[in-house]
Amino acid sequence: ANRNSSQPALAAPGLFVTQLLLIIGMAIGVVAALVVLSALAAADHRPRAIASKPGALLGLRGGGGVHDDGVTKPLVVVGSLNVDITIEVERLPKKEETVMASSPCTSVAVGGKGANQAAAAARLATGTGRPAVLVCEFGNDGYAETMRTALQEAGVDVSRCAHSAELPTGQGIVMLTPDGAASSIVVPGANAGWTAERAAALEELVCGASAVLLQREIPEEVNLAVARFACAAGVPVLQDVGGEDRPIDDELLREVAYVCPNETELERLTGMTIGSEAEILAAGRSLQSRGARNVLVTLGGDGSLLLEEGGRVVRQGALPIPGGRVVDATGAGDSFRAAFALALTEGRPHEQCMRFAAAAG
């Protein structure tokens, strides 16, 4: 109490209790507000780090895509596996130029668009009960077992993968600059060893999937066979067009539910100039005129854009990067597509699928 105050040192008991309850109520309100703000902030950032339960951002429960026997349908990734060998450089070499690496050592990790998407899907689906199944070709070298172990530790089901007796594990040579940009050269190795018989054996798995993810680092006839199975069974297929630089077959465009290029790949596929949003939409519509249904374009720092089958455009801005700095952009697009597919299997609207994808990659 203030010794110089003319008021009594202690207020009446009833008034004192009322004031005390008011103070406690205000304190509880402040704490509750802080908890809500913290939860919202965590929801924006946690998926990018591929946390243990990132599905909380959308309330993912594993409830979509369930077999008649009550078993949750798997998210199936058919694609490539590479051992990524990353070289850190200050800048990329020019034609006929040699540059020194900025680090005395290379780093080795699981890579390949198929393996990246499967690992991202498995981590993002933690706690939902949805399996992430990878179908790939391991090589005949010492990398194979290392890659298998790393994928299993990420939660990926590799029981449907095969081993090539003739070819080594595929390799991705990645040049990483200080701004986090990654440029790559892929040596296909065992990824080129797929056969038509191998693809045909996947029909039952594909038809029982909640969704299928494809890329272009394995033979195109494999992608087409898988897409046919899935389309006939009503299973949505997301076709990542990254990988080998080659034209895409119109039949494949018709069989997949989502064609997923970045800006460079969209320009390469269509032969059209890509700069403004209007040009992106025009290029997307040109793919739709060839049979594509939904065209999902990733735009780097500008976010992403989805041109739906009916003509509606859904836009998603890029979300803040934890720490404020890009460390390594390798696999960002793969994480984006895996997250989009996972949310799609939960029956989420496109807006929520894209936000979840943006948080992941």
- The helix content, as a percent range, equals 25-40%
Return residue spans where pLDDT drops below 50 for at least 5 consecutive residues. Answer: 1-64, 66-70
Tally of individual helices: 11
What Rg is obtained from the alpha carbons, in whole angstroms? 25 Å
Largest sheet: 8 strands, mixed
Lateral strand order in the biggest sheet: 4-1-9-10-11-12-13-14
Q: For the record, give the distance between the C-alpha atoms at the N and C termini, rounded to a whole number.
A: 57 Å
- How many beta strands in the DSSP annotation? 14
* Beta-strand content: 15-25%
Shape field: globular
Structural class assignment: alpha/beta
- The average pLDDT value, as a whole number, equals 84
What is the H/E order?
HEEEHEEHEEEHHEHEHEHHEEEHH
Structure description:
There is one protein chain. The protein has 361 residues and is an alpha/beta fold. The protein is 36% helix and 18% strand. It contains eleven helices and 14 strands. The protein has helices at residues 13-45, 113-124, 143-153, 196-200, 203-207, 220-232, 250-255, 263-270, 277-289, 332-345, 350-360; strands spanning 75-78, 82-88, 107-111, 132-135, 137-138, 162-163, 170-176, 182-187, 211-216, 237-243, 258-260, 294-298, 304-307, 313-316. The strands form three sheets. The chain has an eight-stranded mixed β-sheet with strand order 4-1-9-10-11-12-13-14, sandwiched between helices. A four-stranded mixed β-sheet has the order 3-2-7-8. The chain has a two-stranded parallel ribbon with strand order 5-6. A hairpin with a 5-residue loop joins strand 7 and strand 8 (182-187). Helix 8 crosses helix 9 (277-289) and helix 10 packs antiparallel against helix 11. The longest helix is centred in the N-terminal third of the chain and has 33 residues, at 13-45. It is globular.
